[in-house]
Structures are given as C-alpha cells and as structure tokens.
Design the sequence.
C-alpha cells in the first residue's frame, strides 16, 4: 500500500458495534488513523473513548450531508488508504418472505447497503487512487445462496458484490474486496434470528485477524470469504 501520508488512514462505516467496532479497535492498536461512522452517537462515543485520536462522525450513510462530513474528515488527515463499507441495514425482523416484503423497507435496505457505499466510493476515489488504497465492501453468504426470507438483504449484498467487481475492473490502481465475514455473534445477526440462541457464532473479534491478513497480503481484487483467510493464517 503506497500511502501519500506517513500514517495509514481508514474510514470505517458502522463502527459502533460488531465487526466495524472490532476492526476499528484492532487498526487503532496498529497505529492507524481512523474516521469512524455510525448512526448512534452514544455508541460511537463509547468506541471513541477507546481509540484516542480517531475522528467520529455520527450520522446516516444514506444522508449526502453526512457523507460530505466523512469526506471532510478524511481530507483533514491528508489522504485515505482504506475504506470499509460495513454499515448495513437488515430490514424487517423477523425477515419476511419476498411475497410479503414491504417495499419501503426494501428501499431502505438498498439505500444503505448499495447506494450509500457507492456514493462514498465516488467521493473518496481521488484519495484512494492517490494512495493505491483499498475498498472493503462487507458482503454475506446470503448474496450467493438462496436462503428463504433472506431475499431482500441477500439481493442487496449481491448487488454490492457486483458493484465491487465492476469497480475493480474500472479502477485497477486500487484493490477492491467484497468480503463475506461469515456468521457472527452480533446484534444484527440476532435480529435476523429473533428469540434464537446465537451464542455458538464466532465473535466479530475472531474474524478480524482474517481481514487483517487479507489487507496485508493484498491479493487481486475479488470476492473473498474470511474463513478462507483464517485457515490460511492458521496454516502459516
């Protein structure tokens, strides 16, 4: 990664909990500068207390004014090496069948999971091109598998996967990874399975080493499963 500034900088959306939070804490421990986004200001403040020096911007990634504020925060650091589009919208809970999926709710899913990541990419591409940086779009196995009731969320992640693939072709100077982190013990995953015990799922913290290895090795742009990189890391 060829940064134009001395300290690598990352923007992580959805950084107040789950995988975004875990990755933010890990990157901070490695000396990264961070711009962190989340809808909930209180939860984001809690993360900020653990990552001194990070810039936190509370707001909704579907809001153009909020995206402009994130871009301004990145500009203040003098560049960007990593954009992690992690913020996601699950949709109604419990998940509805497509025959019953409220279209207004589905529009919200697509606004958050597809259009907002693309809008951020459009704003931040100049900085990413300058650094030879990386875009990580957090995907899901629901993007490739036909799970009953997952049609809304899964199709949005399938669209994000395809945007990632086309962006990689159009922007060969950067890396673009669509990453399936696998099932995790998160609030969003619990909402997908209301009333069920999900304690057997891995914690988000357990997925971070695989992501960090992917970022370190920087293979060709493409779609990757975190579990594959975890196995590789263990084997080496």
Sequence:
């Amino acid at each position: 990664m060829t940064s134009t500034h001395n300290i690598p900088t990352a923007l992580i959306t959805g950084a107040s909990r789950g995988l975004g939070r875990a990755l933010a804490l890990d990157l901070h421990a490695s000396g990264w500068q961070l711009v962190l986004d989340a809808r909930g200001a209180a939860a984001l403040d809690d993360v900020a207390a653990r990552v001194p020096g990070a810039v936190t911007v509370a707001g909704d990634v579907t809001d153009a004014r909020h995206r402009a504020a994130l871009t301004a925060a990145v500009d203040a650091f003098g560049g960007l090496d990593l954009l992690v589009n992690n913020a996601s919208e699950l949709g109604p809970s419990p998940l509805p069948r497509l025959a019953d999926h409220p279209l207004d709710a589905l529009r919200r899913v697509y606004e958050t999971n597809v259009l907002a990541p693309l809008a951020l990419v459009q704003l931040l591409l100049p900085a990413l091109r300058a650094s030879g940086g990386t875009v990580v779009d957090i995907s899901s196995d629901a993007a490739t598998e036909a799970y009953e009731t997952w049609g809304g969320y899964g199709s949005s992640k399938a669209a994000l996967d395809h945007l990632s693939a086309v962006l990689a072709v159009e922007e060969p100077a950067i890396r673009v990874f669509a990453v399936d982190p696998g099932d995790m013990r998160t609030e969003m995953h619990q909402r997908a399975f209301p009333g069920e015990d999900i304690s057997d799922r891995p914690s988000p913290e357990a997925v971070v080493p695989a992501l960090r290895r992917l970022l370190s090795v920087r293979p060709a742009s493409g779609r990757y499963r975190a579990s594959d990189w975890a196995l590789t890391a263990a084997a080496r």
Notes: Residues 103-131 form the longest helix (29 residues). The chain has a mean pLDDT of 92. The beta strands are 9-12, 33-38, 55-58, 82-85, 134-138, 175-180, 222-225. The first strand starts at residue 9 and ends at 12.
